[in-house]
Amino acid sequence: MAIKTEPFVLNLGPVHPSTHGVFRMRTTLDGEVVVDMEPVFGYLHRGIEKLAEERTYTGVIPLTDRLDYLASMSNNLAYVLAVEKLAGTTVPERAEYLRVIMAELQRIASHLIAVGAFLNDCGAFMTPILYMIREREKILDLFDMVCGQRLTYNYMRVGGVSHDIPDEFLPALDKFVRRMPGFIDEYDRLLEKNEILLVRAKGVGILPKELAINISAGGPVLRGSGVKWDIRKADPYSVYDRFEFDIPTGTVGDCYDRYRVRIEEMRQSVRIIKQAMEQLPLGAVKSEVPHLIRPPVGEAYAHIEAPKGELGFYLVSDNSIAPYRCAIRAPSLINLTALRDMVRGWKVADAIATFGSIDICMGEVDR
Amino acid sequence: MTVALSGQEIADKLDKQFPGGIVESSQDSLVVNSEFLLMVATFLKDTPDLDFNYLTAITAVDYYDYFEVVYRLTSMEHNHSLVVKTRCYERANPTLPSVVSLWRGADFQEREIYDLMGISFDGHPNLKRLFLWQGFKGHPLRRDYW
Amino acid sequence: MKFERYGIGIAKGMTVTFRHLFRKPVTTQYPEERLTVSRRTRGNELIWSKEKCTGCATCAKTCPQGVIEIITSRGEDNNYIVEKFEVDTGYCISCGLCVEACPYDALFMGYAYERAKYCRGELMMAKEDLLLSDEKQPSGYARPEVEAALPQQTLLLDRAEYLDKVKKRWDLRLPFGF
Amino acid sequence: MTIVETSLGLGGRLAALPPDWPGGYWWHWLVFVVIILIFVVVMVMAFIYMERRGLGRLQARLGPNRAGPFGILQPVADAIKVLLKEDIIPAKGDKLVHWLAPVVAFVPALMIFAVIPFQDGALLVDLNIGILYIVAISSVAALGVFMAGWASNNKFSLLGAMRDVAQVVSYEIPLILSIAGVVLVAGSLSMNKIVEAQSVPFILLQPLGFLIFFMAACAEVNRTPFDLLEAESEIVAGFHTEYSGMKFALFYLVEYTEVLALSAIITTLFLSGWRGPLLPPFLWFLIKVVAVFFLIFWVRSTIPRLRIDQVMAFAWKCLLPLALINLFITGLEIVALPDGLPWFLIFVNIAIMAVLILLWSRFFRLGGGRVEV
């Protein structure tokens, strides 16, 4: 005899311990099983695209810091690349290398939070995330040394970076790069083979390869599904074509694959930073750019491989000092497209874990 | 390196297939008549040597006279990309066909455009405001919104 | 027959946490222990030099938030006299673009980070509040000559060595930090 | 023994007792009730302090160290804070049940301590069915939890409460079966007798029983990895989402009282209770209780949480068969060696445990749990 059940609606969010901000999942549950799920956005909508139309090209850079606030450097980089494409500015060699170093450090920092938060969502009580925040603090210290801020860096400029690195930066970075692989190994020992994590994450929240491509997923979500697609390799920007690194991919696209891909990407980032430090040339860090940039009429799109996926800026210029239109391709928002398909039929706990494994940042989703 | 395909070359190919479908083409992009959009998109996605299986982004720009919706397509197989644009001249109730049936990645982005630009997409399964609440007056990303 | 999931992963993880019991904690006991901040830190105040400022208002134009208000009058030698220089630090996002833009090095970011106020009105900084004083020291952001004079930042990377140097709280000196 | 003697001595003055009752019944009763209450409150505070500081150290931070020396007054500060908070009852909640739930949860948790021997003979009542009494009483606490979840008129609370009931009912069975092994070896249900029977701690004679008991008991008192009913990353705070102030404090107290009871029971059943060389028995008891508690929060700091269906599957497919096998093997050993178990059985039993765990690890399956909707 089948038990007669009745579905009920449960709002997970907007204020909930594991929605990573103010995301709301309007779930229809049948007991513990998620029957339907509708994501609701907009609690952090600040209209950054509209605000950008009112600011000078340089004045938009602080706004981009506030998009994905866990990866401000990457946002800065994507934006300045777009402006440079639009205005035809050249960038000194040293600045390119500094940008790569910063972007890769930022990737490690963002992935640390992503993995930590995912494990926290799986119920590992605070331990992994605290260990990972400890390492992230070291990266933030380095950023603080370079640009004086720990979260909203505002470091990249059109035509280079705002400051050259101080003398004590490279020794400190060297120390960090030498230690980091050991810490990544420690994270692996902590939970990689943990039976409970395996049973919670393996085979759960599967995003098939075809669907991942079809929903335009990006970053670790796409690669976790087994697609070898990384803009650093596919369409190298800055000086990424000069470094050797691998693209880690998953096999089935479950939560565990996404978690593993992030861990492996951290190792690859360390590898890139090592090479960039060796190759770092001397020279200027910023080319001559007018105080108020007036790019010619036209449009430009620049994309980078941000920690969360493909981050793109589409700028339209009307030859004034402010962008006519600044559209942002936000990876976090687009990665959420398939969330409903991924969680339907799973339990509430799996929905939370799957959501955590996608790794979004509400600042970027809602803009 | 992702090869940005020339809009003109693709336009030549498409012109035979869809007479009158291409409004304009340049090195960077091609502009498609909005009535032909879905057909062109299907062709671009399904033709093996084009194979645009990945829709990178959709954006809309308000040029006062018309709205321009920009589709940025990528083929992961051939590693090339193409920019397809379409225009919508009506201002009171602009409508375009939706491409969600081809690329589900368009889902939230079309909703976002509907929300902030006010362009409705025919055939979208769940066309609701994305960021702003139901009943919000106006569409903030239009240039005449203050 | 391969046995792999009999609890070995859990056991491994538990050794990792157990090992942390004997490591020094990374926490800083904030009000007692203070780390030296970055030499380029963008603290939450602005410092304005009355002597150097020519009243060109580049800072006000650059500010993305528009929080700098500057009113000038024509002086005797055909120069500007700054009548009003007001910064609403409540809206300031500490981006430092004004400091970078200043052509006469008359603006500095502050070095202090504990400048919270009790009411909104106090966040409005007029000319006199923005001047350099003993409390208000400039940071080295975009000012290399100031930067060179400031002490080096303490890094978490060097924290183990650092901990031996600072004056410790008495309960931190006990074994295992207890 | 001194406490008992004093209590008996004082009780001699009371004349109006029935002749078949021991003379000091009422004095004994009073003294032990006070002792248990003080013991529970002080130990709960100590546990909260230890857990917070210990977790801090395990997580590379310090833990609370501001209130008093070493932060030792932190539980007091917490208690004062939580007691001063506004008491909120949901508008559409069932007020009476909402009020009653923490009491119903707290009383059985406290009642467990009636049969815990702090040292030889020092216990409130030496019931000859002590362990059975514990099993019976401890499952009543689930009723309080379910009342809380039901009366809160909150879906998170209800989900948490449902999970708790399902979990407690399932884990009761392996729990009792693993206790049965100990009872077979000890030959008595009385807690004091069980301790007296342990010339060798039963953790060595019953290693599999200990593991099963530990896991099942963790599930009973809702500690990680079975803390589903208050899984803060999923259902906010589970059954006590809508509780604040005094009532929340009571639930908090229940949680730690149950953990204390669990540690005390494990100490009694498997770690030879108050027995030990050199130190006084009461101190031995305390040391073992704290050691068990350390193991519990060490586990909490390390491993993630299971999912509800996995928790149930673990109980029925893994713990229950293992507990049955354990009981069977113990029974065989008792029948084969009626004159007491020799020491080499320790190695035999550990080998059996290893083999059984390895065998059951073959049943470990990944990726299940999706339901077609």
| Rg from alpha-carbon coordinates of chain A | 21 Å
Shape of chain B: globular
H/E element order of chain A = EEEHHHHHEEHHHHHHEEEHHHH
- Per CATH, the class of chain B reads Alpha Beta
CATH architecture of chain B: 2-Layer Sandwich
CATH class of chain A: Mainly Alpha
Following the backbone from N to C, one meets helices and strands of chain B in this order, namely EHEEHEEEEHE
Number of helices of chain B: 3
**CATH fold title of chain B:** Beta Polymerase, domain 2
Oligomer: heterotetramer
| Poorly predicted regions of chain A | none
**Helical stretch tally of chain A:** 15
The structural domain count of chain B equals 1
- How many beta strands in the DSSP annotation of chain A? 8
Biggest β-sheet strands, sense, barrel of chain A: 3 strands, antiparallel
Q: Please name the CATH architecture of chain A.
A: Orthogonal Bundle
- Walk across the major sheet of chain A and give the strand order: 1-2-3
Q: In total, how many domains does the architecture of chain A comprise?
A: 1
Q: In whole angstroms, how far apart are the ends of chain A?
A: 50 Å
List the chains of the largest interface with their residue counts. A-C, 44 and 41 residues
Using the CA coordinates, give the radius of gyration of chain B.
Answer: 15 Å
Write up this protein.
The complex is a heterotetramer of chains A (367), B (146), C (178) and D (373). Chain A has 367 residues and is α+β, with helices and mostly antiparallel strands. Chain A has a single domain, classed as Orthogonal Bundle (Cytochrome-c3 Hydrogenase, chain B), CATH 1.10.645. Chain A contains 15 helices and eight strands. In chain A, the strands form three sheets. Chain A has a three-stranded antiparallel sheet. A three-stranded antiparallel sheet of chain A has the order 6-7-8. In chain A, helix 3 packs antiparallel against helix 4 and helix 11 packs parallel to helix 14. The longest helix of chain A is centred in the first third of the chain and has 29 residues. In chain B, a hairpin with a 4-residue loop joins strand 4 and strand 5. Chain B is α/β, with parallel strands linked by helices. Helix content of chain B is 23%, strand content 29%. Chain B contains three helices and eight strands; from the N terminus they run βαββαββββαβ. Chain B has a single domain, classed as NADH:ubiquinone oxidoreductase Nqo5 subunit (Beta Polymerase, domain 2, 2-Layer Sandwich). The relative contact order of chain B is 0.15. The termini of chain B are far apart. Chain C has 178 residues and is α+β, with helices and mostly antiparallel strands. Chain C contains five helices and five strands, in the order αβαββαββαα. In chain C, the strands form two sheets. In chain C, strands 2-3-5 form a three-stranded antiparallel sheet. Chain C has a two-stranded antiparallel sheet with strand order 1-4. The radius of gyration of chain C is 24 Å and the shape is elongated. The C terminus of chain C is likely disordered. Chain D folds into two domains: 84 residues, no CATH class; 264 residues, no CATH class. Chain D contains 14 helices and no strands. Chains in contact: A-B, A-C, A-D, C-D. Chains A and D meet through strand 3, helix 4, helix 5, helix 7 and helix 14 of A and helix 7, helix 12 and helix 13 of D.
